Amino acid sequence: MKVVGLVGGVASGKSLVAKRLAELGGKILSGDETGHAVLRDPEVIEAIRARWGSEVLDSQGQVDRPSVARHVFGDDKKEDRKFLDQLTHPRIKQKLLAELEAHRAADEKLVVLDAALLLEAGWRDLCDVVLFVDAPHEARLARARSRGWSDAMFAAREQAQWPLEKKRTHASAVIDNSGTTAATLQQVDEIFDLLVSRQCGR
Is 11 annotated as a binding residue? Predict the structure, then answer.
C-alpha cells in the first residue's frame, strides 16, 4: 500500500488534488476530520477548558473551533498554539496510524493523507511519497477570501505553517496549480500512474 501525503500553502488546491486521487481509486484520510474527532475527546475538551475557560466550548460542551482559533493564531500566540499542538498532535497521529492499518488490512492500494500540518507535526514518516501543491500567493488569497476568510486570518494561518520553500524541499514531487484545473488534473493523473506502477518511491 502506498501512502501519499499532500502538503502546500494555505488554499493551494490540496482538496482538488485529493478529490482527483479519490476519483482514481485512492482512499482519502483527512487530517482535519481526524483532528475534529480528537477535539471531541473528553480529556482534550477538559484540557482546553482549563487553558482558556468555558468560553471556548459551545452550548453542548464541545470545543468551538473558531473560538480556539482566536487563541492560537497570531504572532503573539505561539505558546498557546504550542500547547494545542502538544495536546492534539500525538492523539491525531495515533488515530491516523490506526486508520492506515485498517486500510492496509483491507488491501487498499493507495491512501492519501490530506493534512495541512503533516510536516510540521512530524507525520512525514507515515508517508511513502509527499506531494507539494504549489499555487501563487494571490490565487491562494483569493480562494481564502471566497471561503469568507479575512486577509488577517489567511496571514495568521500561513504564519502557523512552515515556509513554502521548506515544505517544497521535503516533497517527492510538486504539482503546479497555477494554471487551469485541467492542467492540474493532468499532473495528478500522471503522478497517480507512476504511483500505481511502483515507479515512484520514498
Answer: yes
Domain ranges of the chain: 2-196
pLDDT exceeds 80 at position 201: no
Quote the pTM value: 0.89
5 vs 41: CA distance, rounded Å: 25
Cell of 136: 501563487
d(CA 162, CA 164): 6
pLDDT digits (tens, 9 = 90+) for 72-107: 998 789 999 999 999 999 999 999 999 999 999 999
Q: What are phi and psi of 104, to 5 degrees?
A: -65, -40
16 assigned binding-site residue = yes
C-alpha–C-alpha distance, residues 190 and 81, integer Å: 38
User: Is the distance from CB of 44 to CB of 199 less than 8 angstroms?
Assistant: no
Tell me which of 3.40.50.300, 3.30.420.40, 3.40.50.460, 3.40.50.11740 is the CATH number of domain 2-196.
3.40.50.300
Does the annotation flag 119 for ligand binding?
no
**Distance, CA of 80 to CA of 78 (rounded, Å):** 5
The average pLDDT across 171-182 equals 96
Task: Report whether 15 belongs to an annotated binding site.
Answer: yes
